Each structure stands twice: as C-alpha cells, then as structure tokens.
C-alpha cells in the first residue's frame, strides 16, 4: 500500500498562455484509490490527461516507477483510461470492444477469450458478448468501458468522471462495484470527479483542486474534519465560515465571544477563518445558548431539517433533527471539538454565509449585495 | 398521421417523372420499332454490345478507385484543419462544380489536344508532343476530374463525425497511429466510402460527354451508344433496352458493394 508509483513534480500546463495547472506536486502510491476532486475547470481532468499521456506538460516531470515518462506516448504506457461518456467503439460488439487492447498486444485468441470472459463476469455482463454497444444502457456501457480498460491488467486505471452520466441509484451501485473491483484486482485507481460525496465514499486519498492548484491532500476524514482553507471547507460538505481572532492556543474569539477550541500553533491575535459544520451545532433554549438567533427558514431534507438561523445579520445553516419553526428564537451551544480553525487564505470571505440559501427573493437579493462588497 | 401528406408533392413528382417514364422505357425496350408488337429482339441484340458495357464499367471502376485514393487523404486532411480553413478548403473543392460540366470537359480538350496548351508548350521547349487525348487515360482523367468532389464531400462528412475520444481510446489501448487508422478510423469511415463510391461510379458509368470529347472511337462508352440510338440511329426501342440493362447492371454493382458493408452501416445508423 505504501510503495510510490507515480510522482508529479512542479507540473505546469499552459494552453495559449493560460495557466491551467500551476506547480502540481503529488505522489500516488501503488494500489491506492486516489481522487482528484474539484469544480469544473479546476484542472483535474488536465492532470489526468497528463498522467494518461494525452497531454505533454509545459514544464515539470511525470515519473512512473521512478522513471521520467513525459515523452512516452499514451500507447506505450502501462496505464488505461475509462473515458468520460465511455468512448466505446461503435463498430465493434461488446466482446470485440473488450478484446481490443489484447488484440493490439497480439495475444493468442485462446488467452484473449479467457481474459475477456473473466472480465465479463467481473463486470456482470455475461451473455452480452455479441450485443452492439450502442444498444446498451448507460450503466452497461459504463461497465464495458471499465472491462475494456481492466482486461489489459494495467498498473494504473484512470477514470474521468465515469459515473457522471448515470442516475443516482445506478451511481451508488457503481461506486460500490468500482471500489470492490479496485480492491479485488489491486490496481491503482486515479479517479476524477466533482462530486464530493462520491470522493468521500470511495477514496483512500482525496486531492482537492481549484484554479489549477492543489488545495489540500488527505484522507477523506481529514479533508472533511480539518479543511485547510475556506474553499475546501465549502466544497466538501456544508460549512458555516466566520471571521475570528485566535487569542491564544485553544482560544478563539468570534461574534464578540470567546470560545474554547482544540486548535493550536497560531500567532497571538492572528485573524482566522472559523469553520463550524452544520451538523455539529446543538440547538438549545435561547437563555442556555452561547449564541441566540431567529430561525428564518426551515427545509425538510428527509434525514434532517436544513434550518437557517440569523445571528446578528449573519446566517448560519444548521442541520438538525429537531424541528424549530420559522420565526422562533433559539440558542446554540458549540463544543470545543466542533470548532475548526483555518488560516486566512485567498478564499476567506468568499464562502460560508448562508444568506443566499433561502428561497425568499429579498434574501437572495441581500446575498448578491454582500457578494458585491466582497 | 397527417404528416404523411407532407411527402405528397414529391410522391406525385416521382410518379410523373420517374415511375411513368420508367414504364415507358420498359414499354419501348420490349416492343418492336416498326410494328409496336411485343418482342425480346431488342434485348437479344444487346449481346453485341457487351464489350462496350464491360469497358464502361471497367473505366468507371478505375476512375472511382483513383477518386477514392486521392479523395480519402484530402478529406482526412480537411477534417483535421481548423474550422475556418475547413470552410475555405470545402469551398475550393466545390468551386469547380459551379462551372458547367461541359465547359470543364472542353477545357481539358484545350489542354490535352495534340495542338493543345500542353503539347504546344512541349514543342516550344523542343520536346516531341505526347498523345494525351483520345485514349482510355484521358477518359479516366475526365471522370476523376469531374466526379472527385462527390467522393471527397461524403468522406469529409463521415470523418468529421468520428469522435476524437475514440482515437484517444485506441491510443490508450495500445494502438500506434497506423493501428488507430486501420482499427478505428477506417472502419468508422466505411459509410462515407460507400456513398462516395456510389456517387462517383453511378454517374461515371453512364456518362457519354466525357468519352466523346476526351476519348477515341475505340473508347466509346455505353452512354454514347444509348445517346446515338436516340439522336443518330433513331432507334429509341433499342436505346431503351440498353438503358434498362445499364440500370440493372448499376443496381447489381451498388448492391454487391452494399452487401460487403451492410453490417458496418447498420452500426453507424444506430450510433
């Protein structure tokens, strides 16, 4: 699990002078499930295409097993790709699509047959050998694409938003399926998605990207619990992000109150971003709360209520199973471990205010006003 | 259901100007010129003209293959140009089609004639003139020149539609550029090849003007024979019989070709 397989060093990619990747440094271990996560245009697909050999980086190195492979063309790399929207060959049937790579490698037909049959079983498509790929459903095409890549027994499988075109139910099934295949075959997966939930569910390691830069690398739990900046906090799950000042180790002041927290290592009186996850907040009677505010909207979400509470003009999102009607005056309590402190970054002040979360038009107008100020 | 009436004008057109004339051709082909009685003698006479039929088909096949060999690389090249360049090149290919077919063929006569532009130039620099016209080569040249755009355009359309990610997928699975072409691009462009071949072969096999202007009495084509039956020999019954046989032969040729490519075409249709 710990042996390094791929390393990207100071990777820069420019298209027509526009910098799409900015000094990417990343190493990927053998048999790891690594996810590149970020909004569209963040550079995650570009990174994947550089690893796949479809793009040559402007500068920086791509190392595979310690060897520089910048100039090795795609067809010579021990890497296979599952493309966005599959890219199956329409002139071939399911069997011939899966056998394609093996035939190029000139294996004898008997071995090809064994391996294709084995793959068809793994992706549960037995009996579909002679079907035209164009007659398959999205989920089935997806599985053909995975089989076509995996049958070559690559060291690394690249997956570019492979589940993006599937409906929610099928996506969940395929997530489990992919994770199972990855563990069973012991192949390194590099997975690109913009879906944070998908990333959290499947990955060993998540790389959060934005604007061509890596924002944070870590295990799913760490990324969620210890986001590095406001962008990561906002992109992974929901977050209330507030301005605060770190008075000393384990003491932070915001909203005119001092709270105990568990974070250390900041300068005295350093301005910081404070993250409070909506599900960590306890609602109490108004007179027992650390902070008190008025509920401005409640939305039923199934498992919980999304409750927006106005604290002195700043709107928080609280996810709770307790129903508090609109207009009620409530208090909240914050435990030290519910408060997460981050250093200020270029993203400070851009996220974490839920003024625009409400369906009421005047409040949306408010939110736009406040964005202008920022 | 009312929408089927939208095809009404065309159906009427087709009945008036295709089906009824075909019936007339059939009638003439099977009747005697003098008596108007049913006869198979027109069709029987055709046996004398088999060599001309075969020559017409043979020259058209060669012209079609040359068109394919020239047209495919050009279409491939255009399909990989920038959109603005594509439009320009497409226009250049269609440009000759804007000039009268007769004029274009006559221009070749002026170029290739024994005392034409090329031979005049050759004699002026002290070389002996070449026999450039009134042979099979000149007829094939005329066919290629006139029908090449009809090969390039369908090929270009099909090559444009090939998803670039399929090419990446092939590279990803280990294909070098030669294998990408033979395993993915060529099979996917078969429908374009088929329609290109059809659009060149069919008019080429029935042409008469090209062979009259660029060919010799020895390279007479079946189109010329048919024309002469109506215009010189005044034997429309025999001309009709020849036309009928030519039509059947074209159907057979196109049918054989489609048989080879049927499977691929189906998969393209469902794409």
Q: Tally the beta strands of chain B.
A: 0
* Low-confidence residue ranges of chain A: 358-374
Within the largest sheet of chain A, what's the order of strands? 6-7-8-3-9-10
Shape of chain B: globular
Question: How many independent structural domains of chain A?
Answer: 2
Helix content of chain B: over 70%
Name the CATH superfamily assignment of the largest domain in chain A: P-loop containing nucleotide triphosphate hydrolases
| Count of separate DSSP helical elements of chain A | 9
Instruction: Report the radius of gyration of chain B as a whole number of Å.
Output: 23 Å
SS-derived structural category of chain A: alpha+beta
Rg of chain A computed from alpha carbons, rounded to a whole number of angstroms = 24 Å
Order of helices and strands of chain A: EEEHEEEHHHEHEHEEHHEEEEEEEEEEH
Question: What would the average pLDDT of chain A be, to the nearest integer?
Answer: 87
Distance between the termini of chain A: 44 Å
The assembly state of the depicted protein chains is: heterodimer
- Please give the CATH architecture of the largest domain in chain A: 3-Layer(aba) Sandwich
Describe the protein's architecture and organization:
The complex is a heterodimer of chains A (374) and B (271). In chain A, 26% of the residues lie in helices and 33% in strands. With 374 residues, chain A is α+β, with helices and mostly antiparallel strands. Chain A has 2 domains: 220 residues, Rossmann fold; 135 residues, Nucleic acid-binding proteins (OB fold (Dihydrolipoamide Acetyltransferase, E2P), Beta Barrel), CATH 2.40.50. Chain A has a 6-stranded mixed beta sheet, with helices on both faces. In chain A, helix 5 links the parallel strand 7 and strand 8. The longest helix of chain A is centred in the middle third of the chain and has 18 residues. Chain A starts with a strand and ends with a helix. The C terminus of chain A is likely disordered. Chain B is mainly α. Chain B has 13 helices and no strands. The two termini of chain B are 27 Å apart. The C terminus of chain B is likely disordered. At the A-B interface, strand 6 and helix 2 of A face helix 8, helix 9 and helix 13 of B.
């Amino acid at each position: 699990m710990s042996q390094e397989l791929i390393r990207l060093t100071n990777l820069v990619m420019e298209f027509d002078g526009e910098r799409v990747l900015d000094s990417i440094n990343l190493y990927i271990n053998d048999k790891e499930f690594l996810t590149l996560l970020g909004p569209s245009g963040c550079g995650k697909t570009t990174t994947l295409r550089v690893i796949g050999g479809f793009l040559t980086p402007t500068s920086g190195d791509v190392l595979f097993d310690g060897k520089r492979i910048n100039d090795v063309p795609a067809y010579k790399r021990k890497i296979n790709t599952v493309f966005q929207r599959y890219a199956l060959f329409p002139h071939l049937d399911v069997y011939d699509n899966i056998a394609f790579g093996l035939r190029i490698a000139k294996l004898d037909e008997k071995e090809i047959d064994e391996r294709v049959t084995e793959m068809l079983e793994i992706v549960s498509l037995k009996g579909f050998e002679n079907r035209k790929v164009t007659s398959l459903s999205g989920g089935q095409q997806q599985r053909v694409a995975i089989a076509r890549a995996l049958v070559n027994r690559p060291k690394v499988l690249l997956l570019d938003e492979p589940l993006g075109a599937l409906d929610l139910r099928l996506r969940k099934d395929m997530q489990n399926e992919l994770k199972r295949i990855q563990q069973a075959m012991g192949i390194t997966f590099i997975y690109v998605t913009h879906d944070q939930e998908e990333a959290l569910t499947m990955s060993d390691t998540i790389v959060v990207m934005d604007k061509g830069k890596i924002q944070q690398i870590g295990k799913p739990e760490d990324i969620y619990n210890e986001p590095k900046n406001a962008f990561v906090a906002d992109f992974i799950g929901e977050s209330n992000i507030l301005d605060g000042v770190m008075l000393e180790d384990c003491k932070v002041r915001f909203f005119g109150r001092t709270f105990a927290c568990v974070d250390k290592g900041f300068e005295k009186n350093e301005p910081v971003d404070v993250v409070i996850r909506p599900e960590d907040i306890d609602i109490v009677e108004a007179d027992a709360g650390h902070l008190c505010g008025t509920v401005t909207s409640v939305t039923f979400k199934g498992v919980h209520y999304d409750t927006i509470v106005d604290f002195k003009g700043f709107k928080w999102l609280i996810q709770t199973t307790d129903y508090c009607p609109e207009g009620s005056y409530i208090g909240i309590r914050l435990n030290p471990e519910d408060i997460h402190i981050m250093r200020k970054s270029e993203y400070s002040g851009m996220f974490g205010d839920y003024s625009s979360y409400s369906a009421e038009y005047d409040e949306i107008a408010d939110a736009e006003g406040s964005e202008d100020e920022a | 259901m009312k929408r089927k009436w939208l095809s009404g004008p065309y159906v009427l057109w087709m009945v008036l100007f295709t089906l009824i004339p075909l019936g007339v051709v059939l009638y003439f082909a099977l009747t005697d010129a003098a008596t108007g009685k049913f006869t198979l003698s027109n069709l029987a006479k055709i046996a004398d003209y088999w060599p001309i039929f075969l020559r017409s088909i043979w020259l058209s096949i060669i012209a079609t293959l040359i068109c394919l060999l020239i047209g495919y690389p050009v279409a491939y090249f255009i399909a990989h140009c920038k959109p603005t360049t594509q439009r320009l090149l497409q226009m250049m290919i269609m440009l000759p089609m804007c000039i009268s077919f007769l004029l274009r063929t006559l221009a070749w006569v002026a170029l290739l004639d024994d005392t034409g532009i090329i031979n005049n130039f050759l004699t002026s620099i002290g070389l002996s003139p070449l026999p450039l016209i009134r042979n099979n080569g000149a007829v094939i040249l005329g066919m290629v020149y006139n029908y090449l755009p009809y090969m390039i355009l369908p090929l270009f359309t099909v090559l444009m539609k090939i998803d670039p990610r399929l090419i990446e997928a092939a590279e990803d699975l280990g294909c070098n550029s030669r294998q990408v072409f033979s395993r993915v691009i060529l099979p996917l462009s078969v429908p374009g090849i088929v329609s290109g071949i059809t659009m060149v072969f069919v008019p080429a096999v029935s042409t008469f003007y090209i062979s009259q202007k660029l060919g010799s009495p020895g390279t007479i084509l079946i189109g010329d024979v048919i024309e002469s039956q109506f215009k010189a020999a005044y034997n429309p019954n025999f001309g009709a019989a020849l036309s009928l046989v030519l039509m059947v032969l074209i159907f057979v040729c196109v049918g054989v070709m489609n048989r080879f490519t049927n499977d691929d075409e189906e998969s393209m249709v469902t794409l």
